[in-house]
Design brief:
Layout (H helix, E strand, L loop, with lengths): L16 H17 L3 E2 L5 E3 H8 L4 H6 L1 E4 L5 E4 L4 H10 L9 E10 L11 E10 L4 H18 L5 E6 L3 H15 L8 H9 L26 H17 L4 E2 L11 E12 L2 E9 L3 H4 L7 E7 H10 L12 E6 L1 H16 L4 E3 L6 H10 L4 E6 H6 L1 E6 L4 E6 L3 H6 L1
Parallel strand pairs: 1-5, 7-8, 12-13, 12-14
Antiparallel strand pairs: 2-4, 3-4, 5-6, 6-11, 7-9, 9-10, 10-11, 14-15, 15-16
Helix pairs in contact: 1-5, 2-4, 5-8
The structure holds adenosine-5'-triphosphate (ATP) and magnesium ion (MG).
EC number: 6.1.1.21
Enzyme class: ligase
Keywords: Aminoacyl-tRNA synthetase, ATP-binding, Cytoplasm, Ligase, Nucleotide-binding, Protein biosynthesis
């Protein structure tokens, strides 16, 4: 019997996982600076939460959810995105009682039944943030800026920010009529999904991946915005300009999720096959009340970590080697081997990243091992050196070797 991982899932092995740790570390560090705090919610929730919170006419709910009935006959779904669970938790735990805006972030796996390809998986990871409790456009801009800062600080080049306003439900209802006037004559040219969306949620047609060529000359929702929506959008743009965040306006950007109001945005980059979106988000003033909470506005984003890492690889971005060890202790002889056990443990307790041989190998093989591990130093311990209480310390970059007292090794390495 041979087992293989399920389609659309990935093993992240040592060697690759350091990139993940680096990227996740950056996300946490940036969140700390922007005063977002981590929230951890369950990997599965009631199916109804996503049906309501994500929207019945979205790709996610229509065809991508991992839904199952548990032994207690509840319908549960592996979370396909992070916002619904965070908002559910915000309501359930009454975080709205906090006089300050709730600024939350999460990092973790999401599940969608999709056709797997580069940058598209069935289990993937998102870094997301949610800011709930204020309508201030400065908060929309802060969320957009945080995502942009993340891409910049992990070292990606050429990530563009596209923004749009999808208005309020009333604005969308008016726009919907104008859009249908434009779409109706083209109905037969559009894909089956779009034809069905035209009847149920025409705005989502603009989000279609296959029909973009037919949308040349489509009306712009920006021309349908009322005064309040325009003012909000203007202020978001102004805040971005004030912070020096570059952006472009894309009036066709609608995002897949139904709960967005006002601001919608995406981060785009070239380099992952046909995929050009690496993350996105928007404002969702209706979501908290939609899932049974009080009227509380929110804004958030979700960034795909696989796509971030694929781009880092594509751009051959140099990342710091997080795994590199400080010293490899080469032990020769029985007494030295025994001392190595004590010494390596001692060094580790003093904060030094230390490694040794476990296979009784010859000096040459041990040195090769030190090389593979990227050891900054090797320290060679033979029975003679041991008797003198010394060890031969070699700086691998400089190629210099000198004798140091075993008792002073940790201090030497830390200097
Ligand atoms: P797409 O248009 O590529 O299907 P989406 O609109 O479904 O994306 P969102 O729900 O907005 O994506 O999720 C935010 C981000 O999460 C995406 O920009 C992407 O980086 C990542 N993402 C979404 N689905 C997947 C997936 N199946 N595999 C890997 N990453 C994904
Ligand atoms: Mg999708």
């Amino acid at each position: 019997m041979k087992f293989q991982k399920s389609p659309g899932t990935q093993d992240i092995l040592p060697g690759a996982v350091e990139r993940w740790q680096y990227v996740e570390g950056k996300a946490r560090d940036i969140c700390r600076r922007f005063n977002f705090r981590e929230i951890r919610t369950p990997l599965f929730e009631s199916t109804e939460l996503f049906q309501r919170g994500v929207g019945e006419t979205t790709d996610i709910v229509e065809k991508e959810m991992y839904t199952f009935i548990d032994r207690g006959e509840r319908s549960l779904t592996l979370r396909p995105e992070g916002t619904a669970g965070v908002v559910r938790s915000y309501v359930e735990n009454k975080l709205f009682g906090d006089p300050d805006v709730s600024k939350l972030y999460y990092i973790g796996p999401m599940f969608r039944y999709e056709r797997a390809q580069a940058g598209r998986y069935r289990q993937f990871h998102q870094f997301g943030i949610e800011a709930i409790g204020a309508v201030d456009p400065a908060l929309d801009a802060e969320v957009i800026a945080l995502g942009y800062t993340f891409y910049t600080e992990v070292g990606l080049k050429g990530v563009r920010v596209e923004i749009n306003s999808v208005g309020t439900p009333a604005v969308r209802a008016a726009f919907r009529e104008r859009l249908l006037e434009f779409l109706n004559p083209k109905r037969e040219l559009l894909c089956k999904d779009c034809q069905s969306r035209m009847d149920r949620n025409p705005l989502r047609v603009l989000d279609c991946k296959v029909d973009q060529a037919h949308f040349e000359g489509a009306p712009s929702i920006l021309d349908s915005l009322d005064e309040e929506c325009s003012a909000h959008f203007e202020k978001v743009k102004q805040c971005l300009t004030d912070m020096g965040i570059p952006y472009e306006i894309n009036h066709r950007l609608v995002r897949g999720l139904d709960y967005y109001t006002h601001t919608a945005f995406e981060y785009k980059a070239e380099g992952i096959g046909a995929i050009d979106t690496v993350g996105g988000g928007g404002r969702y003033n209706g979501l908290v009340s939609d899932i049974g909470g009080p009227e509380q506005p929110g804004v958030g984003l979700g960034l795909g970590l696989e796509r971030t890492i694929l781009l880092l690889e594509h751009q051959q971005t140099e990342l710091p080697n997080l795994h590199e060890i400080d010293v490899y202790i080469v032990a020769l002889g029985e007494a030295a081997d025994r001392e190595a056990t004590r010494l390596v443990y001692q060094l580790r307790m003093q904060g030094v990243r230390a490694e040794r041989d476990y296979q009784g190998r010859k000096m040459k093989a041990q040195l090769k091992s030190a090389d593979r591990l990227g050891a900054r130093f090797t320290a060679i311990l033979g029975d003679d050196e041991l008797e003198r209480g010394e060890i031969a310390l070699k700086d691998m970059a400089k190629g210099e070797q000198r004798m140091v007292a075993i008792s002073a090794l940790a201090a030497e390495l830390q200097a």
